[in-house]
Amino acid sequence: MRSAVITIGDEILIGQVTDTNAVWIAQQLNIHGVRVGEMVTVSDNASQITAVLDRYIGDYDLIIMTGGLGPTSDDITKQTLADYFNSKMVMHPEILERITAYFKERGRSMLEANRLQAEVPEGCRVLINDHGSAPGMWFEKQGTIVVSLPGVPYEMKGLMEDHVIPEVNKRITVPMVVHRTIMTQGVPESYLAAMLRSWEKALPECVKLAYLPRPGIVRLRLTAVDKCAGEAGQLLEGIIGKLLKIIPEHIFGYDEMTLEESLGNLLKEKELTLASAESCTGGNIARLVTSVPGSSAYYTGSVIAYNNRIKTELLGVDPSVIKEKGAVSREVVEQMASGACKAFGTQTSIATSGIAGPDGGTDEKPVGTTWICVQNGIRSYAAKYSFSGTRERIIDQASYTGMQLLRRLILGNI
Amino acid sequence: MRSAVITIGDEILIGQVTDTNAVWIAQQLNIHGVRVGEMVTVSDNASQITAVLDRYIGDYDLIIMTGGLGPTSDDITKQTLADYFNSKMVMHPEILERITAYFKERGRSMLEANRLQAEVPEGCRVLINDHGSAPGMWFEKQGTIVVSLPGVPYEMKGLMEDHVIPEVNKRITVPMVVHRTIMTQGVPESYLAAMLRSWEKALPECVKLAYLPRPGIVRLRLTAVDKCAGEAGQLLEGIIGKLLKIIPEHIFGYDEMTLEESLGNLLKEKELTLASAESCTGGNIARLVTSVPGSSAYYTGSVIAYNNRIKTELLGVDPSVIKEKGAVSREVVEQMASGACKAFGTQTSIATSGIAGPDGGTDEKPVGTTWICVQNGIRSYAAKYSFSGTRERIIDQASYTGMQLLRRLILGNI
Hints:
With 414 residues, chain A is an alpha/beta fold. The first copy, chain A, has helices at 10-13, 20-31, 46-56, 77-84, 93-105, 112-116, 153-171, 189-195, 197-201, 232-246, 259-270, 284-290, 308-315, 319-325, 330-344, 391-410; strands at residues 2-8, 35-42, 62-66, 89-91, 119-121, 125-127, 136-141, 144-149, 177-185, 207-214, 217-225, 251-254, 274-278, 299-305, 348-354, 369-375, 380-386. In chain A, the strands form 4 sheets. Chain A has a 6-stranded mixed sheet with strand order 2-1-3-8-7-6, sandwiched between helices. Chain A starts with a strand and ends with a helix.
């Protein structure tokens, strides 16, 4: 089954609102084995909506539309659909009863606009909305299903779950698509692609690979389509098994697991506690680690030392070493990591010191130069990196690199 | 000028990634007076890309495409455009030089895939990318401009700002739409709407208002359209002047200025330094403050005290007070704020202690309960808040509330 998603709303076209409905619908359809071929956003305008329907009907098996079903005059989707499918508008007694009851319960008076929400194009299948007043509508034409849902996210989600997904599941015989994502850290996209060339070449025709980079992280998405989708579970496991032999040290999880969750799980499993000492990352490591619910079980805290005196006073860094080697140096970042373990009484620590920019770079230490040290009570590992990009990107890369280095140190994989 | 936005990428159609590029582009185009008529997402597939171009060329003045320009084999946009515009691929010496220099600087070897990023369709205008390796491309056909940009957000934004927006500004004669945004903190959307009801009612017909909430922050967007757009500057200034009289203490800036920038500017202007002591916000205040370039001029650092012993040892909080009042209390957060000023030698501080959840709440102190204290060497102000939502939302609300409270304390507006 192939699908298109239509979002109707001026607020999206002027950039005022991000369209989270379309991405949620795409996720749900994919999970249930439906491929989404195209997503489009159009204005609250009858001729534009009609043109998009003309384009998609016949080409796709399923069209999901959201938006434009509210009670105000700028909401024109329902009338447009009635005209498009040559239907006249009729009052739907069950919906009218529901809307009347809704207003009565709340002691509010019902306006004509609210009453009109109970009208639907004759001949469409009505999807009762248990989450709001506007019903969903289901049309079929030339082998294409057209579903119209309200734009309010929780109403749309409710109608998808109550009506659309169950009906889609009934009609789908074989899923067309199955995904697995492998999360990696430490190798930029183009290098990773080079390292994985022969593995990638050996993929079966019906398994596609995509590289999805974020600052400091690259996700590898495997997609089994068509005839592979039926037996995707075992097939993808085998492919991931081979990948694990090539880059074991760079994989930290699967299917949108975050690095901070992965590190947290490892610390809990090994019963270790963590502190950080951050200069250039400015609290970003602390923020990521504490974004995980329950992180207080293993995370004790951090000193953000945005000036050299603090490095000395709170972390015990030798001021003569800062003077001699500079704040961005192996010696300082090692002393910061030791100082964090000591000050917070933890077994493990991550320390960062670098130049996040845009100013502060020199010929010898350009913007992006970052020293990172990780310790686990047994070993200390420090390395220098040259990150590139904006201040935000450099901070992100340094943060993720620090967390992954600590994972590798704990796992004895460095 | 009318525009369409095309996003290319399977990761969006499978719901793995929310398309933030399209919304950012729509925002920017609107700000500069370009109306966006349609946004579409298609797969990394040559015939689909070609079909969309056929559909839009001639209909729109400007088409912005993003995605599919990376170095890996699933990136097919550049070749598709070369075929579409009947161009052959040629090596661009300046880009090749830049890519070569980029790899040399970092002491990394250059791969064939990286070298090929310097190839462009002959006859297109090349947009030099100062933020990454893939250049942008500018084509014109039948009165329509077609711009292709990389999908990596900061590269796309860089190319938009460096090349596309300046060129668009040159070609626009009359703007069709003008926006101003007022940034507020401290009042939830529905309360703000009630406070501003009569101001909103007095807006001229051709000025639209939108409430755009984010956790802890509400943006008010004024949009002057049609006949108002021509004289929008003065008109909107007058409207904002009236707003300032109603909610002076809640406005911290305009047009996407961040609260961390606004606070930073104030600290610099008043020659004050800042430290933070964070419990429930877990480093998020530090991260936000240090995300501003040059923040080391006023920010000294933070202690993230994720356990009570650290509050005592590094911030000097009296352990008997923690025992008696609990870590989430006025007394503890006041001592944390004083301790931060003392430990870091600063005039001002922000301290937070709360229950971010999802666990750890009690009947007396449910999840979301947060004490915040701000100090400026002259006064100390502490207050208790009941934030709601997810862990992430609670942390964001506490962080922004803390920063805005400090602004108000410094400005004598609390």
